[in-house]
Amino acid sequence: MAYTEIDARLDLTAALRSASRQGLGEGICNHFSLALAGRPGQFLINPQGLHWSEITPGDLVIVDAQGRKVSGKHRVEPTAFFIHSAIHRGKSNAACVMHTHMPYATALTVLQDGRLAWASQNALKFHNRVAYDDNYQGLALDEAEGERMCREMRDADVLFLGNHGVIVCGPTVSATFDDLYYLERACMLQVIAMGTGKPLRIVADAIAAKTGRQMNGESEQPALHLEALKRVLDREEPGWSRLE
Fold first, then answer.
1. Of 124, 117, 112, 132, nearest to 192 (Cα)?
2. What is the fold, at CATH topology level, of the domain defined by 3-230?
């Protein structure tokens, strides 16, 4: 394997394992994918049937834009392919795509008119970066459904899927995972605060926009976050990085 593929496998596995440790996955469902540099139309994705906590870099599967398995020892779950392939094809900045049913973000999707409120600093990271799909259509078992989701998040990095979960995309694993983590934290704070029955303290739109720009400017924080998570895995889950 070229270095770039090894690096991609390590980063995606670290994100999957870390998401599992933080309770962001659900059973053996949900999927993370990463486009392979220099291999147009091909991307890595976690396989069907494996829990995120047991995945190693060697378990990841490579598929192409037509849904064919290029390499790998496991199968790919059908909805994973239809969702991820459409977004990789349709969004130029979506090198990495993460789809989860993480609990607090998903809680907002099951509320009537559930929306992320600009009520915490964590939420402001997503100002002007979020879209909503309120038209639940069942499982994503065909290309049309994946393409519909992609259209809904055309101008966004985060899509809340009504009655379902969320999709987060970005240019790298580190940037996308950092967004996924802070999105769940923002939703957690909002759901807890809403549970008090008291009104949310909403940040003025101009300040929310300014803070969002500050948080999403040039920063090494996402890369440092992922490297820190790798050190945790090295210490607490030795063997996570096996390539065979």
1. 117
2. L-fuculose-1-phosphate Aldolase (3.40.225)
Which amino acid, 111?
L
Residue range 163-217, pLDDT digits in tens: 999 999 999 999 999 999 999 999 999 999 999 999 999 999 999 999 999 999 8
* Single-letter code of the amino acid located at 244: E
Angle, CA 147 vertex, CA 141 and CA 150 arms, to 5°: 120
- Ramachandran sector of residue 110 (left: φ over 0; alpha: ψ -120 to 50; beta: rest): alpha
Kindly state the average pLDDT of the residues 68-87.
85
Backbone angles phi, psi at 89, to 5 degrees: -70, -40
Q: Domain limits of the chain?
A: 3-230
Long-range Cβ pairs for the range 16-21 (8 Å, 24+) = 16/46, 16/52, 16/55, 17/52, 17/53, 17/55, 17/233, 17/237, 17/240, 18/177, 18/229, 18/232, 18/233, 19/52, 19/98, 19/100, 19/177, 19/180, 20/51, 20/52, 20/53, 21/53, 21/232
Alpha-carbon distance 215 to 38, whole Å?
30
Count of beta carbons in the 10 Å neighbourhood of residue 188? 17
* H or E stretch covering 155: none
CA 165 to CA 102: how far, in whole Å?
7
Cα–Cα dist 171/207, whole Å: 26
